[in-house]
Write a structure and sequence with these properties.
Number of helices of chain A: 19
Low-confidence stretches of chain B: 146-159
Shape of chain A: flat
Number of strands of chain A: 14
CATH class of chain B: Mainly Beta
Structural class of chain A: alpha+beta
Low-confidence stretches of chain A: 321-329
Number of strands of chain B: 7
Helix content of chain B: 25-40%
Number of domains of chain B: 1
Largest sheet of chain B: 5 strands, mixed, barrel
Oligomer: heterodimer
CATH architecture of chain B: Beta Barrel
Number of helices of chain B: 6
Largest interface: A-B, 51 and 37 residues
Radius of gyration of chain A: 28 Å
Shape of chain B: elongated
Distance between the termini of chain A: 62 Å
Mean pLDDT of chain B: 80
Strand content of chain B: 25-35%
Largest sheet of chain A: 6 strands, antiparallel
Helix content of chain A: 55-70%
CATH superfamily of chain B: Nucleic acid-binding proteins
Chain lengths: 690, 159
C-alpha cells in the first residue's frame, strides 16, 4: 500500500516539478526583461519548490528500490532480491530513468543553493541565472516525466500482455513480477557507487558558471565579476569531474579485467571532453581576472563546456554508441540533439552580439609572457578536444555519408593526442615561470637551467640503462623537468618566507598554503599530474602481457616474477554468484612475496560472467593476473593472462595528490585587511597577492 | 603582433590536422560485413578490419593446450535498421546460420575460449585476412542477443 502511494507521489512530484521549471524560466525571463523583481523572486521560489518535490520523488524511488517493488518497471529492471541494501539504493543511478531523475535532483540542489546566495551586489544577474538553471531543469524533467519516467508500472492487460505504463491501460491489472532482473553485475562494485554521482556532480556543477556567463552577457556586465562569483563553483564541479574520471579508471582497472585503466571508449571520451574545456576555462579565467584579457575565450569555453556536459549525458544515456556504459536504446536521443543545438546556437548568438563588449583591456604584448602561455594552454586543450571529437564523430559521419562503418581504435587517440599532451606537460613547467607582460629569454633561461639539466641527466641515465623508446624518454624528461620546476618554486618561496620570518618548516608550509591557496593548490595539482604521467608512461610504453595454461603446481616466469598455480575452488555465494577462484603463489626474484587470487564471478540469474584480476602491486610495477579459463571437473589446469604493468601505482597516487591540490585551491582566499571605503563607480577591485 | 599570433595559430592548426591524419591511417578500422570483406579481399589484405557475423556452432574447434580456437562466421547485415526490419538481432542470427548459401568466413584466434562463443551468437572480430582466406583475429567480442531482450518478465506472483 505504501508502495502504491509512493509511486503516485513520485510521479506527481516530478510532473509538478516540470511545470514549475517551465514557470520559473518564463517568470525569470519576464522579470529580467521588464525589470520586475517580484517575478524574479517568484521564479526563485519555484526553484526551491522544485528541489523539495524532486527530493520527495527521489526518496520515494529509493524506498521502492530498497523494498523491491518489482511492479515498478524501473525497480524490476535494476534490482533483485539477492542484492544487498547498499546496492539496491545505488541502483538509483544504475539505469537510465533513475539516473536522469538523480541528475535532475542534483541540478535542483545546485540551482537552489545558488539562488539563495546573497545577491545584494549582483542583483541584475539573478533573473538570468534563474532562467538558465530553470531551463536546464525543465529539459531534464521533460525527459524524466515524458520519455523516461522512473515511476512507470507493469500492467497485465486482458489480452495477457505485460505492458509498461504510468496509468493503467483499460481493464489492466497491476503485475507483480516475482523477481527483478538485477543491477548489471559490472556495476556492483564500490568504485561504481561513487563514479556516477561524482561525474554527475561535475557535469551539473558546470551549469552554474555557464548560467553566470549568460547573465553577464545579457546584462553586459562583462568584467570579471561573474568569474569571481563562480570561481569556487567551477572548482567544485571540476573537482568532482576529475575525481569521477579517476574513480572510473580505477574501477576499470580493478573490475573489467583487461589490464588497462582507460580504453578511449566513446563514452569515456564523452566525459573527458567537458573536462578538457573546463580545465582550459579554469586556467583562462585567471587571465581575465588579473589582466582583463581572453574574455572571448572564456565565454566560448564555458559555452562549449555546457554543451559538452549535456552531450556527455546524452552519449552515456541514449545508447547511440554501444559500450560498457550505455544502457538500452531509447527515445531520448533526438530530444538531446535539439536541446544541445538550440542552447549552443542561442548562446553563441548572444556571444556574437556582445563581441565588442568583450574586447580586452590591453593586447598581449609578447609571445613569451604569462598571458601568452595561458593562451597556448587554451589552444592545446582545444586541440585535444578537436582530436577527440573527431574520433567520436567520424564513425557516425562516415556511416551517414559514405555508408562505410569505421571505428576509431585507441591507436588513433594515442598517436594524435600524445604529442599534444607532451606539449601541455612542457607548458606546465615553463608557464609558471614566465612573467606578466614580457619575459626576457635570459631570465627564463636562468630559472629553467637547473630543471633542464636534471631532465637531461635522467635521459642520459635511462639511455645508459638501455632504454631506447623515444616517446618514453621524452616523457620521462618532461616529467623530471616539470616536476622539478614546480618543486623548486615551492622550495624557493618557502625559503624566502623562512628567511624573513624564521618560522619552523611545518608552519612555513602551512602559512604559505593558506596565504595563497590558489597558487599553491595549483602547483600541487600540477605535481599530481606529473606523478600521474609517470604511471601513464609506465603502462603505455612498457606493459608486457602473456598468456598460458598452467597445470597444478606448474610455474611460469613473468619478467622478474615467478608465478605458481596452487589450486582453484568453485563455490556458490549467497548473493547469487558462482565464483571460480584461483590461488597463485608469487615469487619476486626467487623470494616468496604472497598469494594472489584472480577469479571469475558468474552471476547466475543474469547469466553474466565478471572477471576480477589478482594483483600484486608495488611502486615499481603491478603483476596483474586474470583467470580466463579452467576445466571444472578435473581442476587439473587453468588458463591465465598475465600483465606486467610498470609504475601504474603512481597513477593512483598522482590522482590523490591531484585531489588534494584541488581541495587546497578551494580553501577560502584570505581577505586582505583593508579599510572599507565606498567603491567609486566604474572602478574594478583588483585582487591582492598573486 | 597580431600577425605573429595568426601565423602561430595556423601552424598549430596544421599540426593538429597532420596529427589527425597520420593517426587515422593507423587507428581507424573498417567495420565490415562478411560479404563486404570477401568482396574487397584483395584490397584489404594485411589491413586491420573489424568484421561481424553469426557464429556457426558445429564449426567451433578448440585446443586448450595451444589455445587455438577456430570457428566460422556467417554473413549478417551490418545496418541496424535492416536488422530491425528482419525481426531483430536474434532472428537475423538464426536465419544466418540456417542458410547454407550465405557467405562464410573461417576465423582463427589464439586465446581462451569465451563462454559466450556458441551457436547463433554474434561475433565481432578484429584482425587481418591472411593469404589463405582465413581471418586472423586478434580480438574477439561476443554478443548473445537473447539474454537482454527478455524485457518482459516471465514470472508472476499469483495475486
Amino acid at each position: 500500500m505504501i508502495g502504491w502511494w509512493l509511486v503516485n507521489l513520485g510521479a506527481a512530484s516530478i510532473a509538478l516539478g516540470w511545470f514549475l521549471a517551465i514557470y520559473a524560466s518564463l517568470a525569470a525571463f519576464w522579470g529580467g526583461w521588464k525589470r520586475r523583481i517580484a517575478w524574479v523572486l517568484s521564479a526563485r521560489n519555484a526553484l526551491g519548490l522544485i528541489f523539495f518535490l524532486l527530493t520527495l520523488a527521489t526518496l520515494s524511488l529509493l524506498y521502492l528500490l530498497a523494498n523491491l517493488h518489482f511492479e515498478v518497471a524501473y525497480v524490476h529492471s535494476v534490482t533483485n532480491s539477492p542484492m544487498p541494501m547498499y546496492l539496491r539504493l545505488t541502483a538509483l543511478w544504475g539505469g537510465q530513468a533513475g539516473s536522469l531523475l538523480f541528475w535532475a535532483w542534483l541540478m535542483a540542489l545546485y540551482a537552489t543553493t545558488v539562488a539563495w546566495r546573497d545577491w545584494t551586489r549582483d542583483r541584475e544577474f539573478l533573473p538570468w541565472v534563474v532562467l538558465v538553471t530553470g531551463l536546464t531543469l525543465a529539459f531534464f524533467l521533460f525527459l524524466v516525466v515524458v520519455l523516461e519516467n522512473p515511476f512507470r508500472r507493469l500492467w497485465l492487460t486482458p489480452t495477457g500482455d505485460v505492458v509498461e505504463a504510468l496509468f493503467p491501460p483499460r481493464g489492466a491489472e497491476l503485475f507483480y513480477p516475482r523477481e527483478g532482473r538485477g543491477l548489471n553485475p559490472l556495476l556492483r562494485h564500490p568504485g561504481m557507487i561513487l563514479h556516477p554521482p561524482a561525474l554527475y556532480l561535475g557535469f551539473v556543477g558546470f551549469v552554474i558558471p555557464y548560467a553566470f556567463a549568460m547573465a553577464a552577457l545579457m546584462t553586459r556586465r562583462t568584467d570579471a565579476r561573474w568569474i569571481r562569483l563562480t570561481r569556487r563553483w567551477t572548482l567544485v564541479a571540476w573537482f568532482f569531474l576529475s575525481i569521477g574520471q579517476l574513480l572510473g579508471s580505477r574501477w576499470a582497472y580493478d573490475v573489467l579485467g583487461w589490464g588497462g585503466y582507460w580504453g578511449w571508449d566513446p563514452v569515456e571520451i564523452a566525459s573527458f571532453m567537458p573536462w578538457l574545456t573546463g580545465t582550459a576555462f579554469l586556467h583562462s579565467v585567471m587571465i581575465q581576472e588579473r589582466r582583463g584579457m581572453l574574455k572571448h575565450w572564456n565565454m566560448a569555453l564555458i559555452i562549449l563546456t555546457y554543451s559538452l556536459v549535456v552531450f556527455a549525458t546524452f552519449l552515456t544515456r541514449s545508447g547511440v554508441l554501444s559500450s560498457v556504459h550505455s544502457f538500452a536504446q531509447s527515445a531520448i536521443g533526438p530530444a538531446f540533439f535539439i536541446y544541445i543545438g538550440v542552447t549552443f546556437l542561442a548562446s553563441t548568438w548572444l556571444l556574437l552580439r556582445r563581441w565588442n563588449d568583450l574586447r580586452s583591456v590591453r593586447p598581449i604584448q609578447s609571445l613569451l609572457s604569462r598571458e601568452a602561455m595561458f593562451l597556448y594552454v587554451n589552444v592545446l586543450f582545444l586541440s585535444i578536444l578537436a582530436v577527440s571529437f573527431w574520433g567520436v564523430i567520424y564513425p557516425l559521419l562516415s556511416e551517414l555519408f559514405v555508408g562505410e562503418k569505421v571505428t576509431m581504435g585507441p591507436p588513433y587517440y594515442e598517436r594524435a593526442t600524445g604529442p599534444l599532451f607532451a606539449a601541455l606537460l612542457l607548458l606546465m613547467g615553463v608557464g609558471p615561470l614566465a612573467g606578466w607582460g614580457r619575459t626576457r629569454w635570459e631570465r627564463l633561461g636562468r630559472l629553467l637551467a637547473l630543471p633542464a639539466g636534471l631532465a637531461l641527466l635522467v635521459v642520459l641515465v635511462l639511455v645508459f640503462q638501455g632504454m631506447r623508446s623515444w616517446g618514453a624518454l621524452l616523457g620521462f624528461a618532461l616529467i623530471t623537468f616539470t616536476g622539478s620546476v614546480t618543486l623548486l618554486e615551492f622550495v624557493r618561496d618557502a625559503r624566502a618566507r623562512r628567511k624573513a620570518l624564521r618560522e619552523p618548516w611545518p608552519i612555513t608550509v602551512y602559512r604559505l598554503l593558506s596565504r595563497n591557496p590558489r597558487r599553491y593548490g595549483g602547483y600541487i595539482i600540477h605535481l599530481g599530474v606529473v606523478v600521474m604521467a609517470l604511471g601513464i608512461i609506465g603502462i603505455e610504453f612498457f606493459q608486457y602481457e602473456t598468456q598460458r595454461t598452467l597445470a597444478l603446481n606448474q610455474r611460469l616466469q613473468v619478467k622478474e616474477y615467478t608465478v605458481e598455480y596452487r589450486g582453484l575452488q568453485v563455490f556458490n555465494t549467497h548473493d547469487g554468484r558462482q565464483v571460480a577462484r584461483a590461488v597463485l603463489g608469487v615469487y619476486r626474484d626467487g623470494q616468496f612475496v604472497g598469494e594472489i587470487f584472480p577469479r571469475q564471478d558468474f552471476y547466475i540469474l543474469e547469466e553474466q560472467p565478471m572477471t576480477i584480476p589478482g594483483v600484486y602491486s608495488t611502486w615499481e610495477e603491478d603483476l596483474y593476473v586474470i583467470l580466463v579459463g579452467w576445466r571444472p571437473i578435473t581442476t587439473e589446469g587453468a588458463t591465465f593472462k598475465f600483465y606486467y604493468n610498470p609504475l601504474v601505482r603512481w597513477l593512483w597516487l598522482g590522482g590523490w595528490v591531484f585531489a588534494l591540490g584541488t581541495l587546497v585551491a578551494l580553501w577560502p582566499q584570505p581577505q586582505p585587511r583593508t579599510v572599507r571605503v565606498r567603491e567609486p563607480r566604474g572602478v574594478q577591485p583588483v585582487a591582492v597577492g598573486d | 603582433m597580431n600577425k605573429k599570433f595568426l601565423i602561430g595559430g595556423l601552424l598549430m592548426l596544421s599540426a593538429v590536422v597532420y596529427l589527425v591524419f597520420t593517426a587515422m591511417s593507423q587507428g581507424s578500422q573498417y567495420f565490415l560485413t562478411v560479404e563486404e570483406l570477401l568482396a574487397r579481399r584483395e584490397a584489404l589484405q594485411g589491413r586491420k578490419v573489424r568484421v561481424s557475423g553469426a557464429v556457426l556452432g558445429p564449426s567451433i574447434v578448440y585446443n586448450p593446450e595451444t589455445l587455438e580456437l577456430r570457428f566460422i562466421i556467417v554473413h549478417i547485415p551490418g545496418d541496424n535498421d535492416e536488422i530491425e526490419a528482419q525481426g531483430g538481432l536474434a532472428a537475423v542470427l538464426k536465419a544466418a546460420v540456417n542458410d547454407p548459401d550465405r557467405p562464410r568466413l573461417p576465423v582463427v584466434y589464439y586465446g581462451p575460449k569465451p563462454d559466450l562463443l556458441r551457436h547463433e551468437a554474434q561475433a565481432i572480430v578484429l584482425g587481418t585476412m591472411d593469404e589463405n582466406g582465413v581471418f586472423q583475429a586478434e580480438e574477439l567480442l561476443l554478443k548473445c542477443p537473447t539474454r537482454y531482450e527478455a524485457a518482459v518478465p516471465t514470472q508472476a506472483a499469483d495475486e
